[in-house]
Structures are given as C-alpha cells and as structure tokens.
Amino acid sequence: MNQIEKKRSSLQIAGEHQRAALAAPHRFTTQARKLIAALRERDDTEAVLKLRRMIGLSS
C-alpha cells in the first residue's frame, strides 16, 4: 500500500468515527454536558441518575 492509500484509509476511519458522534441528537449532548458540569461542581445523586438513564445504564 503506498503512502497516498494509507492516508486515504486513515481519513475514512476518522470520518466514520466522527459521523457516529455527529449522529447523536444535539439536545442529548447538551443535556449530558450540563449534567456532567453539575457533577464536577458537586456530588449530586439526582444528576448521576439522570445521566445514567440518558446513556442507558439505568438499573
């Protein structure tokens, strides 16, 4: 595989990885960021539970 093909394949892999992140609804990522910021400021059990429900880890 020559150098151009290697670069092209690495760009395709990076593109797929970025598309997965962009596929998430903007509202979801904004809410998750707010919850994570709240957790950094204080230990909030309710914020932990909301975040776990958002990412599908609820028990």
Short summary of the structure?
The protein has 59 residues and is mostly helical. It has a domain at 25-59.
Care to describe what's here?
The chain is an all-alpha fold and 59 residues long. It has a domain at 25-59. It has helices at residues 3-23, 26-41, 45-54. Helix 2 runs antiparallel to helix 3. It is elongated, with a radius of gyration of 18 Å. The termini are far apart.
Structural class based on helices, strands and sheet pairing:
mainly alpha
Spans of at least 5 consecutive residues with low confidence? none
Tell me the β content: under 5%
Average pLDDT metric: 70
Kindly state the percentage of residues in helix: over 70%
N-to-C SSE string, H for helix and E for strand: HHH
Which term fits the overall shape? elongated
- Kindly report how far apart the N and C termini lie: 48 Å
Reported for the largest beta sheet, the result is:
none
Number of DSSP strand runs: 0
User: What is the C-alpha radius of gyration, as a whole number of Å?
Assistant: 18 Å
List the main descriptive attributes of the protein structure presented here.
80% helix, 59 residues, elongated
Provide the fold topology.
Blueprint: H1 3-23, H2 26-41, H3 45-54
